[in-house]
Amino acid sequence: MKTKITYVLLLFIVFGGWAQTTDYGENQPYASYWFVEDLLQWSPKKDRNSRFNISYVPLGERFVDSTTQLRKELSAAPGIISLVAPHPTSKHPAQGFPSVKQYAFPYWQYIDYFVQWGGSAAEGIIVPPLATWTDAAHRNGVRAIGTVFFPPNVYGGKEEWVYQFLQQREDGSFPVADKLIEVARTYGFDGWFINQETYNLKRDVADLMVAFITYYRKRASLKLVWYDAMIEDGRVIWQDELNDHNQVFFQKGTQSMSDVFFINFRYSATNLEDSKAMARTLGRGEWDLFAGIDVQAKSYKTPAKWDVLYQNGRPANTSIGLYWPNSTFDISKTKKPEEVYANEQKFWNGGPSIETRFGETKWEGFAPYFPARSVLQKLPFKTNFNYGLGRFYNERGKTVSNSEWHNLGIQDVLPTWQWQSDSTKVKPTFSFSESYEGGSSLLFEIYDDAEIPLYKTNITLDKPVTFEIVAKSDTSVRLQFYCRLSNGEVLGFPLKPSDFWKKTVFRVAAKTNTAIVSTGLQTIGKGNAYLGEISTFYKKEKKLPAPEFSVEVFPKGDKAEIYLHFEDTNAAFHNIYSVSGSNKVWLGKTPSKDYYVASAPLSNGFLRLMVEPVSVGGNKGKAAYQKIRIEK
């Protein structure tokens, strides 16, 4: 990306912002990345890591209900694409880290596309999205996109890579396009971002790129994102708008070439107004254009062009493209999740005013200008407000692992509004020291009676709905869970007072042509309160049978790395434990059919494992056990 040429350089040298863990096991599976020649040789059957890079979580169906929006007048048509660089291109563990000091994203409700940003001349230029991130994105109805990055020549880009990418068979087909489609279908993600910034190319390269994209679009229903760099004659000249020089990569006659057109960062108001007019002339909408904001260096302290992007309190001429919003992690001094999440709140909700060379400016954020999307319209549903990382792992408030972990693949659907409440009365946040299930919970520091909206829902009441809420609070605090109905009614249900985790069960009666449109919490008194679980269903799920699984063991001393493979079941997740007598230690949880455990304890020459299936609604099924003798 380019506001000035140094942005590509920053892609390589900024890696110090990551809290890297390098002490991985010899059999650690890694995320995929390729040069073109490597991709052409790739096969999932030959790649021992590929099975750990598959997402099995389907894309959730989203909705927007204007009656529950922060601002009812906002349209859901404008969108946000987010280019996130969660780790360097190479040596990225396929399914997470043994550390909380890695980036996790909590604001899925405001974005429409997640792009796995990466690729470098030194490592590889084709990078699919991480399976764990695709899991979390899909769970929230967000599309996951991989990156094809052709770097500028001065930073290692080679013309030959572009020619290799665009090679064409005699029958007119493109072998690399076929491979991109194969990777996306195998790994379960939604499309590719093409960023072509290599220059000194032959003049016919643009025609080949147009033919390549046309072939890709006709061969698959996958998405395509195009970055404003290369123009119609093959030169790399950033236009900062959609115009005659680059429109062929957006729309060619009746053929849609790109679903998302990412406009470079140096635009003016006129650039975006002209882009909107051009999109409409081509028979497309302006919201398919995404004006870029480069936040890599300063995060929510970036002096963005808000007066160009927003007018009359809403997006003006284009959607929004975010480059490197994981800078909320980079600017954190401690890398602790508490500090990173505080940065996230400022980034998405609006931050403080800052001084720039242009005078004082305020970071406007995005939550005030984009309606929050939701997927909560099917039951059963369960959340433990699991952020996707933890310093420990709890079950029913009891610690079953004291090890740090990071896995976006098991992140829950987090609250829709973070946070639409009176900050003088209550401070809602995530607690990473208290949890009912997982590694986090919701913490409310309460100064006065308050109301905290939690989830946007569309739960029909054609039959009764049961809720199970787990909470605890100081004795000076009383909590009430509420459901707001589409007919205007608000139903309140007091939670059992307790200073330890306590479950309250209640039922919302059936009502014809009525739905629960939002849920939340009301507080009375002053003090602290925690919310550990919301579970809701029409009827209890049947208990899942014991799963079938196979194990491959790599012993080393009194520990072992292990590969687990789960046969097809109806489980949404599997929990993995090491067992010794009546004691168990949590080793991990996954929605995947294949999972890697970095360190499982051996005892007296045996590996003893327990695997427990977990249903869509979060109910745990019958456990399966294996006792494996380790040969010396």
Description:
With 632 residues, this protein is α+β, with helices and mostly antiparallel strands. The protein contains ten helices and 37 strands. The strands form ten sheets. It has an eight-stranded parallel beta barrel with strand order 1-2-4-5-6-9-10-13. β31 (549-556) and β32 (559-566) form a beta hairpin. The longest helix has 15 residues, at 205-219. The chain is globular, with a radius of gyration of 25 Å. 48% of the residues are buried. Mean pLDDT is 94; it is low at 1-17.
Low-confidence stretches: 1-17
Number of strands: 37
Strand order of the largest sheet: 1-2-4-5-6-9-10-13
Radius of gyration: 25 Å
Shape from CA axes?
A: globular
- Largest sheet: number of strands, sense, barrel closure: 8 strands, parallel, barrel
Distance between the termini: 53 Å
Seen as an oligomer or otherwise, the chain set is single chain
Strand content bin: 25-35%
Give the averaged pLDDT, no decimals.
94
Instruction: Enumerate how many helices there are, as a single number.
Output: 10
What is the helix content?
A: 10-25%
Structural category is alpha+beta
Key terms:
single chain, 632 residues, alpha+beta, eight-stranded parallel barrel, six-stranded antiparallel β-sheet, 10 helices, disordered N terminus
Question: Would you spell out the secondary-structure blueprint of this structure?
Answer:
Layout: H1 6-13, H2 36-41, E1 80-84, E2 113-116, E3 126-127, H3 131-139, E4 143-150, H4 159-165, H5 175-187, E5 191-196, H6 205-219, E6 223-227, E7 251-252, E8 255-256, E9 260-263, H7 269-281, E10 289-294, H8 306-309, E11 310-311, E12 314-315, E13 319-323, H9 327-330, H10 337-349, E14 353-356, E15 359-362, E16 381-383, E17 389-390, E18 393-395, E19 398-401, E20 405-406, E21 426-431, E22 437-438, E23 441-446, E24 450-460, E25 465-473, E26 477-485, E27 490-494, E28 502-508, E29 515-525, E30 527-537, E31 549-556, E32 559-566, E33 573-580, E34 583-590, E35 594-601, E36 606-614, E37 624-629
Parallel strand pairs: 1-2, 1-13, 2-4, 4-5, 5-6, 6-9, 9-10, 10-13
Antiparallel strand pairs: 3-4, 7-8, 11-12, 14-15, 16-30, 17-20, 18-19, 18-22, 21-23, 23-30, 24-29, 25-28, 25-30, 26-27, 26-29, 31-32, 32-35, 33-34, 33-36, 36-37
